[in-house]
Amino acid sequence: MTSEAAQTAVDEQVPLIEAVQRLVRGGWDEVESSLVTYGEPIAVEGTRSIVRCHFLRSDPLGNPRLKTLAQQLANQIVNYCIPRTEIEKVGLLSPDRQIPEITRLANDAARLFTQTQVKTGEGAELLLYALLEKGLQIPQVLSKMSLKTSTEMQYHGADGVHAKLLDNGDLAVYWGEAKLYESVAKAMTDCMDSIEPYLTGTAHEQDVFLIRHYVDAGNAEVTARLLEYFNDKSILSANVEMRGACLIGFLHENYPSLPREEASVKAELDEVLSSWAKSTKTRLENRSLTKHAIEVFFFPMPSVEEFRKAIKAELRIEVKS
């Protein structure tokens, strides 16, 4: 293909690029009152990965706004759990029927979360969804929660599937993994172990199968065009780039009151964030992942257990002791 023909092919993809970008629902303002973005994104040396860090925002008394974050994440469960086509159908109803249907969808979404497991990671998965969709404007293209066959089990495979079309017409698919541990080192190791098979091509077959059958852009034409990227008979299937998104949640002692105390703790936080970035580099190198683009979100929290409890409380799930 000549350079002119290649450019023509890219130009023809512009409407689809714009259509996929319009799939993003909402923005950072929906969680900004509970989250603080600390520092600038760090490009991990020798890799294509980016490290970002978010803390809970604190009130004037230094109390982290965990309950507020849990409320804001709970507000996202319809978009997170329910396929776009179902939501679009509600928008076509008469105004007097929309509210009952929206309420039904919210109840259906809440029931998809595990009801009895204590150490569930679904709250972290919901947070990862928000960081990708609200923060980086990368839309979810497959609602895996809607595919659960039992509310007492978490789904298998990647914790999230997001995608965006690049300016050159390639489709970047983001496999998400979210981990919550007391130890940051354990969370990092487990997260990298989980994401590695998806990026090296040894574990994503099942989720690609789900994409082929359940991807939903809320628009039949856009969905059909996206599916061309997952049809091995289409030349577009050669233009898919597998990327990663990792949420690393962990206990951080002496929790800072941000952003009010940022100046006094900046040196300490800069040092620890730098160490997390270096540890990320080591783990990427050990797993031969330096060529893959991965968004790595560090989320220190004052209590992992309280984070889980707060999410369950907002979803009206009885918290087992």
From TrEMBL:
Pfam entry (one): HamA
Top-level lineage group: Bacteria
Domain Anti-bacteriophage protein A/HamA C-terminal: from-to ranges: 46-315
Name of the protein: Anti-bacteriophage protein A/HamA C-terminal domain-containing protein
